[in-house]
Amino acid sequence: MKRLLCALFLSIVGSALAEPQVILLKLDDVVARKIGSSPVSLRWQKVHDYLIEQKIKGSFGIITESLEKDNPTYFQWLKDVQAAGQIEFWMHGYHMKKASEPGEFEQGTAAEQQAILEKGAKLAQEKLGFPLVAFGPHWSGTTEATDEALQAVPSVKIWLYGPKQPKHFKRLSIERVLALENPTFVPDPEKFKTVYEKNAATREVLVLQGHPDQWDDKRWAGFVEIIEFLKSKNVVFMTPSEYLKKVQPNQP
């Protein structure tokens, strides 16, 4: 009986002391708006405003080709959002891949992929004045060459949806467990809850990918429901750099 009570006590104490799960919202494909006066699409502005209003931290992936042409309004929006500290921008590749094209990080040598990464890093520093500390591949596909290339780009310290144990990359890599969308572009709350409870509820950290520019009103409602579900689990939303400081406090 004493052993049983002791085990129960330790279980309760352990649960009480357990840290909340960390959620990194990985929202993909930021580019400048092609038509209209606003710097980004109305759907991007909507998700930005929602996160700010809800005091939820997140991260937006920039397609760095969008930094090539001079666009002061777009650049200032990116600078202002980054400076506010609630949302962090990260590198999502250079070219906006089409479904019929092979991905930038699904082909090529390490040197070729390194050149893509360095091009994006240079554009961000020149046009925005800050580094893109995290990387997540456009279309999600990578090769061992990506692993090697990332290690050669010191400004990239975090790999979102990277291998569990990279062969070359020695900094922080966080693997893919699930996404906000199932299928891609469709936030389905019921599917999300099922996969979450089965595969993800006990994970220390989850990176959750989504594509806000593809969300109509129904998909938007699904995204909001997923966020409310996560909040009911008492998770903590962080930016990638904030999580890096948590787990690797000595990282320069």
TrEMBL record:
- Which controlled-vocabulary keywords does the entry list? Signal
Taxonomic lineage from the root: Bacteria, Pseudomonadati, Verrucomicrobiota, Verrucomicrobiia, Verrucomicrobiales
The UniProt entry, under InterPro entries, shows: DUF2334, Glyco_hydro/deAcase_b/a-brl
- Leader sequence residues: 1-18
Q: Which GO terms describe its biological process?
A: carbohydrate metabolic process
Lineage top rank: taxon: Bacteria
Instruction: Supply the name of the protein.
Output: Polysaccharide deacetylase
An example Pfam family from this entry, by short name, is DUF2334
